[in-house]
Amino acid sequence: MKIPNPTSLSRMIASCAGSLLLLGTQAHPAILANWRFEDGSYLTDSSGGGHTLTGTTTPPTQVNPLPGSGNGSDFSNPIPQTGDGNTGLANYGSSQNGHLYLSDDGWMDSIAANNTFTVEALVNRTTDKVAQYILSQYEYPGTGTRSFAFGVGGSNLRMLLSDDGDTFTTFNSTLSLDKNVDYYVAASVDATDPTGSITFYLQDLTNGGTLQSQQLSHSLSGIYNPSVNVRVGANSTVTESRWTGLLDEVRISDTVLNSSELLVAIPEPSTMILVLGAGFAILATRKFGRR
After folding, report:
1. What gap in Å lies between CA 50 and CA 118, rounded to an integer?
2. Tell me, what's the pLDDT at 205?
3. Residue 106: which residues within 8 A CB-CB, separation 6 or more?
């Protein structure tokens, strides 16, 4: 068997890395949408689901590349979980400048069917408000129009949840976000059991903080499935609740992700070894299988 020269070997390693990323992406079939706000595909859903966003009359603007300093400069690049490069973000400004949205044509049904979901994002808030929201499927006012809304109440992470579409419960964590600081935020909801849980996650990216978490109990009977718009950077059409600041890497999954599956988590070594081994096996077949 011929031993590859250093150049060939480096290409093999690069190819294995590509295989790793591909298999890593395929390992998360529960991802419903992932809006990365990258150059050339600003509003595109990178999960492959085709859930492209639409902007209101005053939509947030794209920032590309990421700032070299200040707000947004400490957003993860590359993304630890996937290895994807991160070069763009959405700037919602410091006032109610609009938001992004798309219709729910059934692609969110699995959330209510599973009674579980996880929302993640990279954020930087620039203005103090009573509440501002990152991702929601929630209309107000209306009948049978509420499901969830994830965002910040005051300075703390919060989640609004409804199991009947009309009434809702506000879950306020004690995880706090300072203004003009880059953060990773997430919330996982498990409504499969009345004694289930809501887990909030927060990591300070600007100051190199560790991943914090807080778990709250609930008494929901499930998660309601309305047919209203899904909004990024807003809670319904109420302008006072729109996000102010930066958003990036907004991702929603229809299951509860554990801490090792979150966007800021580096894949476990055992997983990486298995995938790299598979990648090298594929390359070995390609390189040396034909004699």
Report:
1. 19
2. 98
3. none
Mean pLDDT of 19-23: 41
Predicted pLDDT of residue 237: 84
**Whole-angstrom Cα distance, residue 247 to residue 59?**
13
pTM, to two decimals = 0.84
CATH class in words for 35-263: mainly beta
Residue-range domain boundaries for the chain: 35-263
> Omega before 226 cis (within 30°)?
no
- What pLDDT band is residue 269 in, cutting at 50, 70 and 90? low
Closest CA relative to residue 123, chosen from 54, 217, 172, 60 = 60
Q: Contact at 8 Å (CB) between 31 and 79?
A: no
Could you read off the pLDDT of 127-153 as tens digits, one per residue?
999 999 999 999 988 899 999 999 999
| Ramachandran angles phi, psi of 268, nearest 5° | -60, 140
List own/partner pairs for 235-240 with CB under 8 A and 24 or more apart. Answer: 235/131, 235/133, 235/136, 235/138, 235/140, 235/149, 235/151, 235/160, 236/136, 236/138, 236/139, 236/140, 236/149, 237/139, 237/140, 238/140, 239/96, 240/96, 240/129, 240/130, 240/131
In this structure, are residues 91 and 134 in contact, taking their beta carbons and an 8 Å threshold?
Answer: no
